[in-house]
Amino acid sequence: MAEGFLGFVNGLIDNLWGMLKTLYENFGLVLLLLVAVLVVLVIIALIIVAVAALIGITLSLVAVMKFLLIAIAIAIVLEIVAIVTLVMIIIRVFNDDTLSIYEMWYAIGDAFADVLLSATEIFLILKVASRLAKLVKLANGVGKLAILIKRCGSVAKFMKMITEVKSITKLFQVVTKLDDVGKVVSSLGKVDDFIRAVNAFDDLPKVIGKFNGAAKFGETVKALGGMDEFIKATKKLGGVDNLIEGMAKFKNTDDFLKALKSCDNYDDLLKQADEMAKAGDEGAKSVDESGKALDDAAKKGEAVDGDPFNRTQEELDSLASDPAHGNKIDIKSMREREVGLALEKSGKVPGPITRDPSGAAEFIDNTGQLWDVKGFNSNFPPKKGGYTLQKSMNSIMESLSHGENVMLDTKNLSTEHLAELLAEIKKLGLDSKVIPWPL
Predict the structure, then answer these.
(1) pLDDT tens digits for range 157-200
(2) What's the distance, Cα to Cα, between the start and end of the chain in Å?
(3) Are 109 and 12 in contact (CB under 8 A)?
(4) What is the pLDDT of residues 330-370, one digit of tens each?
(5) What contacts 226, CB < 8 A, 6 or more positions away?
(6) How far from chain centre, in Å, is Cα 60?
(7) Structural domain of residue 295, as residue ranges?
(8) Which residue of 115, 347, 400, 406 has the fewest CB atoms within a 10 Å radius of its CB?
(9) How many domains is the chain built from?
(10) What is the crossing angle of helices 181-188 and 101-152, to 10°?
């Protein structure tokens, strides 16, 4: 047993020693080959990074990976040959009665050394492949950083941006994970907003994924008033998921923003959504009845409740189509039409009125004057978006500052609040520009 073990070890060592001796005798050539291989690998690495930095892709790796696959295939073939040779030697030596136990195991050890060498070749090639895989990741990151530099406008601005990032490592991880960092920055409109997002969220790519892509993410951020407001909203509501679900509870962004401003937390936001929905259902019945009467009259070709302009169905639809919301007709826009027609009929607004195609105001009268429709609600507490004199006057003054007169929808105002608001309007000398209905 000891004799066989000794023969196996000696056969293994002699094979390996012979290889080392050959390398030593040709040391100059071996050293030259090693240097050449290292230089080639460095050049390949530089090309990969350079290509990624310039055009943001790593197509040059395709050829390299094919070469590695061929090398692995050759190494596997050599390994199979070595194993087959080892098996054949084992069969031969055990059938050769002339060999001693030492000689038998010596031959086996020598053949086993070839198996080990072939396995080592496969290991080294796989190691190189894994390093190249890491290089791919690095190259992609470099390419995406190059896009970010381009978005910044200059290297100097990029360096300034770097100083605002809490962690450069985190920035690199984010741009590496994102499929198209340029698209994300474009959707936000500002590189600064991108950096704020990187600083604010632990996993920005995951956050963007919740919005099903960069475009929807950017739209949401802009709708909320920018990245700072978006971040505040996620904190107030307890996370991005609650923000998305909360927005879905409201019919439009304006209602959501109003509730968001006055709510304390996510549960409070949901309560306001329910209250708005109930109020909307009650108002819808009234508006639907009014709208139905208008539509029925138009279809019959009759004047609409004394309408001197005898509007057609198409013209009525136009008055209720809101360009600011994709020309949709909803409860709000139908109520605006009702208010506009009533004031036109009363003679307080020169008719015929038409919808403002820009969406900036609601209507344009016969003289070209713009009119905005404002409505305030006494049915909610101020904290939840209900009427206050200050907020109502601020809203009216904003419209007036844009050259728009105001049609004041008083339907949801209490008698007390209506009297207070009309008194303030008269006090400021605005009663010719702010016309209430109904009184």
Answers:
(1) 666 666 777 776 777 777 767 777 777 777 887 778 888 888 88
(2) 115
(3) yes
(4) 778 888 888 998 898 888 999 889 999 888 899 999 999 99
(5) 193
(6) 29
(7) 272-437
(8) 347
(9) 3
(10) 20
